[in-house]
Amino acid sequence: MLDRLDGFLMRKFNFKMKKKELFLQAFTHSSYANDYPEKHLKNLERLEFLGDAVLELCVSDYLFRHFNELSEGKLTQLRSGAVQTASLASLTKEIQLDQFILLGKGEEQSDGRKRPALLEDVFEAFLGAIYLDQGKDAADYILNQTLFPKIDRGDFSHGMDYKTSLQEYLQQDGPVKINYQVVDSRGPDHHREFDVELTVNGVVQGRGTGSSKKRAEQHAAKVALNVLKSNELPRDEE
After folding, report:
1. Which secondary-structure segment (H or E) carries 72?
2. Can you list the alpha helix ranges (DSSP code H) found in the chain?
3. Angle CA 145–147–4, to nearest 5
4. What's the whole-model pTM score?
5. Strand 193-200 with 178-186, pairing
6. Which CATH architecture group holds 2-153?
7. Neighbour count for residue 142 (Cβ, 10 Å)
8. Distance between CA 194 and CA 218 in Å, rounded?
9. CATH 3.30.160.20 domain locations along the chain
10. What residues does CATH 1.10.1520.10 cover in the chain?
11. Angle at Cα 28 formed by Cα 155 and Cα 117, nearest 5°?
12. pLDDT per position in the chain (238 positions), as tens?
């Protein structure tokens, strides 16, 4: 399993394991360790504990740096959506980490490999192993290729209304014309992705991508809001 995992991580993330025993532990479910006591394997539970904390730190750090317009409450809400069980379980399957999980016979027969809570634990244990193997930068590197793009697309931004925030920000000095236009779409009907271009008074100010037109519009508004705020210059005092 470790040789397969090593090759997989190299191909998918250009990541090379240093301490392979950490990754064996990260993918060893307690049911497998109990079924094969002669192997003296450590299960993933301690790494899952660590990975949970690493995940919260990395996501919090990313949100703090990239979502300057959000309040503490909104940041907490967005982080909660990104690290919830359903999100991490879906991510584990999407990047195919589930194929490496070592399960006991009973757990395998009861479809444990599909259980969201188990998949969440595996992702967190995997991140814990990454952190111990090569540090926080390595954990950020993996998340930059997996979870963070989903955050940027607005996949977890339910209730985060960037369009309203942008409108309020722009209309401080009077009315403006804001327009959202779908400029591209791709993928099958069940997994569609949209690109939306945002203009303010006819000038392009942002572009966003999302799994629906609404999400793409929210992403475009977020991009525009960040750009506009970052371009603000302090006024010279006379």
Report:
1. helix 72-83
2. 2-13, 20-26, 30-35, 45-66, 72-83, 85-94, 105-109, 116-134, 136-145, 148-153, 162-170, 213-230
3. 60
4. 0.72
5. antiparallel
6. Orthogonal Bundle (1.10)
7. 21
8. 12
9. 162-230
10. 2-153
11. 35
12. 999 999 999 999 999 999 999 999 999 999 999 999 999 999 999 999 999 999 999 999 999 998 877 888 888 889 988 999 989 999 999 999 999 999 999 999 999 899 999 999 999 999 999 999 999 999 999 999 999 999 888 888 766 678 888 888 888 888 899 999 999 999 877 668 899 999 999 999 999 988 788 878 988 998 898 888 777 644 333 3
Assigned CATH topology for domain 162-230 = Double Stranded RNA Binding Domain (3.30.160)
Catalytic residues: 52, 124
DSSP 28: B
d(CA 169, CA 68): 14
Q: Which residue has the tokens 């589930």?
A: 98
